[in-house]
Amino acid sequence: MDGSDVRELPARIGTLLDDLTASDDAWVRDCAEELVAAVVQLYGEGLTRAITMMATLPDGTQAIRRLVDDELVANLMLLHGLHPDDVGTRIQQALDRVRPYLGSHAGGIDYLGVDDDGVAHLRLEGSCDGCAGSAATVHTAVERAVLDAAPEVSRVEVEGMVEAKPSTPQLLQIGMRCPDGLAEAVSS
């Protein structure tokens, strides 16, 4: 890995940390965990100071909003509790982004809140009248958008989803049919 795609770095860091914590050597495990915690704390403090300084500038609020538009920076801000938007605002923005893709399949979608267990509750207004495949697509798109915008959410529950109707097998009638001419030959 050459580090050219920073989106791959969290997974790489996780893999390396998992490898280190799987070590039989307790000192290696403890040292790895302490190292990661110290680096996260260091970068968090630096990011906090940078955002605090930006906020004091005449166009600081606009600059911070531009930082939030960058996916990587926004995720770092979330990690360190620095994101300017609360969970409800971020979920609403995610739903606004996904609504055009839902089209006629879902109708409207309302954000109802996040409960104490971290479950985001949504409600669909409208449906695609029984098209279970579209319902699954809608649920996946909505869930992905919400979890990307609010990683602190543990899961997404959507009321009003059209459940897939179990298909009932069609009975096939198998009858006995004598080949042409056989019935006459037998009866004579």
From the structure above, extract its key features:
188 residues, three-stranded mixed beta sheet, 56% helix
Map the helices and strands:
Layout lengths: L8 H13 L4 H30 L4 H9 L2 H9 L7 H20 L1 E7 L4 E7 L6 H18 L5 E5 L22 H6 L1
Parallel strand pairs: 2-3
Antiparallel strand pairs: 1-2
Task: Walk me through the structure.
The structure is a single chain. With 188 residues, the protein is mainly α. The chain folds into 2 domains: 6-79, no CATH class; 87-159, GMP Synthetase, Chain A, domain 3. The chain contains 7 helices and 3 strands, in the order αααααββαβα. The protein has helices at residues 9-21, 26-55, 60-68, 71-79, 87-106, 132-149, 182-187, and strands at 108-114, 119-125, 155-159. A 3-stranded mixed β-sheet has the order 1-2-3, with helices on one face. Helix 2 (26-55) packs across helix 3 (60-68) and helix 5 runs antiparallel to helix 6 (132-149). It is extended, with a radius of gyration of 28 Å. The model has no long low-confidence stretch (mean pLDDT 82).
